[in-house]
Amino acid sequence: MPKKLYSDIYDTLKQEINKQVYQPRNTLPGEEELASRFDVTRNTVRRALKELQSDGLVYAVKGRGVVVLEPIRDDRVVFQAENTEGFEALRNFPQNKFIQRLSTDVLTFEEVEVDEELEKLTSFNTGDVAYFVERLRLFDGKALAVDNSYFRKSLLGDMTREDAEKSIYEYIRDNGLFKIAAERSTTTVESATKRDLQVLDVGDMNCVGALTKFVYTDTGRLFEHTQTRYVPNHFSMVDFKSF
Amino acid sequence: MPKKLYSDIYDTLKQEINKQVYQPRNTLPGEEELASRFDVTRNTVRRALKELQSDGLVYAVKGRGVVVLEPIRDDRVVFQAENTEGFEALRNFPQNKFIQRLSTDVLTFEEVEVDEELEKLTSFNTGDVAYFVERLRLFDGKALAVDNSYFRKSLLGDMTREDAEKSIYEYIRDNGLFKIAAERSTTTVESATKRDLQVLDVGDMNCVGALTKFVYTDTGRLFEHTQTRYVPNHFSMVDFKSF
DNA sequence: GAGTGGTCTAGACCACGGT
DNA sequence: CCGTGGTCTAGACCACTCC
C-alpha cells in the first residue's frame, strides 16, 4: 500500500515531532537506526529527512545528528499559508475558511500583440499574441488585490472571457493543453499607481505589495506573466532556508 | 581535485545552459548518458540535476526528459539578489557594487527581559534576557531600512554596543559561539508606524515592507528575531517553485 | 575511537510519454 | 514498444563532532 516509502516516513516523523515524541533541541535517532525501524535503506530515510529540513522542522549537523528546531508561534490572520500560488490555489485550499468570502471580477479581457516594451515586462517575444486579463480579487466585497496577467495565446488557443471568469487553470486542465511545471516570482513594495487607487480599496495607503510571477509549462515554455498588486496588511509570504 | 562530483557536474551543466549548448525548450541528454559522460553513477547526475531544478533552470518530466526552461530577463536595480539574508550578507556579496555606499547606524542597544508580549513576537521564552538592537541601514546617506532585532543573551554572552556596531555575526564567529543553521522568514506590507516615519526616509510613502526573520543555531536553538522594515521601491525578493 | 551525517557506486524495478 | 525520469536497495568510504 505505501506507494512512496520516503513520504510515509516523512509523515510519520513529522507527526512525532509535532507530538513532541522528539523534542526541540534534541536529535532524532540516527539515520541507521531509523532505517532499521522503518525497514528501508539509509538513503530512503535521508530523503525523508531532507524534506523535513526543507520544511524547517529539523536541521542536520554532520557528526552530531539531526536536530529538532524550536518551533515558532505564528498567529497570522488572513491568507496565511498561501502565496505565490495565486488566488486560484487559495480558493482550493481545503483548510481555507474564507473561500465563501472570496470572489473575482474580470475587469479587462483582451488580446494584445507583444511589443518591445511588453517584451521587457513579460519576457515573451515581440510579435507574440497574448491575452491580457485584469482580475479584481474581493474579500467580503473589499477589493484587496488585482491581478494583471498576460498569457501566450499560442499555448491557450481560443479562450473566451467566460473561461477567464471561471478559472484559467481549469480551462487548461479541461482542454488537456499542458501541465504547469514551475514558477518564478519576485516580491516588492511599490508606490500605488492611479489604476491601483481606482480599483483597489487601499484606504489611505499610498503603496501596494507587488508579486510578479512567471509560470512555465512542462515543455519549458514561459506561458504566463502575472503581477498581483495587493493592499497592505492582508498578505504574508513564508520562506525557509538552511545553510 | 574535485571534492564534490555532483557540484562539478552542476557547474558544468549550468555553464552549458547559459552558453546555449542546450537550448530552451529542448531536453538535456538522458541521465544515463550524462552519467557515462561524467563517469559517475546516475544518482550523482540526478543530484546535480535536482540542484539545477531548484535554481529554476530546468524541469524534469517523467517519460520525456529534463527540459531547459526559457530564461527570464530581469533588470532589477538596487538590492537585486539579496534578501532574507540581511545587510550583513549584502555587504559581503562580492558582486555587490554598492558596498561603499552602504552604512549602518546603531540607534538603540539595550538588554530587555522577555515578557508575555515579547514572547508572542519573538517566540523566545518569558523570563529570557535578550539584547534589543535597532540598526538603521543607510544607502548614500538615505535611511532605507531599519532592523529591530532581538538576540538571546544566553547564547551570546556579554556583547557590547561596539560589537553590534561592527557585525554581530562576526562577533559570533570570532568567539566560536555556534554556527547559523537556518532561518525562517515572512514578508508583508504594513502601515508605517510613528517610529518608521521618524527614522526612515520614506518620503511621502505611508507604508513599509516588513521582513520578519527567525534564525536558528546549529543546535536547534532559536536565537535571533529580526524585523526589517524598509522603504518601498528599493527591494525585491526572488523565489522559485517547481511542482 | 565511536558515532554521526555527507558522498558515491552499481545495481534493480517501476510509471510514464511518445512511437 | 522503447526510452525517459522516479524510487529503492545494499553496500562503501570519508569528514566531522563529541567524549
Automatic annotation (TrEMBL), chains A, B:
BP terms from Gene Ontology: negative regulation of DNA-templated transcription
Domain of life: Bacteria
SUPFAM superfamilies: Chorismate lyase-like, Winged helix' DNA-binding domain
Record domain HTH gntR-type: where: 3-71
Entry keyword DNA-binding: yes
Keywords: DNA-binding, Transcription, Transcription regulation
CDD domains tied to this protein: WHTH_GntR
UniProt keyword Transmembrane helix present: no
GO molecular function list: DNA binding; DNA-binding transcription factor activity
SMART domains (alphabetical): HTH_GNTR, UTRA
PANTHER family found in the cross-reference section: HTH-TYPE TRANSCRIPTIONAL REGULATOR TRER, MANNOSYL-D-GLYCERATE TRANSPORT/METABOLISM SYSTEM REPRESSOR MNGR-RELATED
Protein name, as recorded: GntR-family transcriptional regulator
Organism: Companilactobacillus nodensis DSM 19682 = JCM 14932 = NBRC 107160
Organism lineage string: Bacteria, Bacillati, Bacillota, Bacilli, Lactobacillales
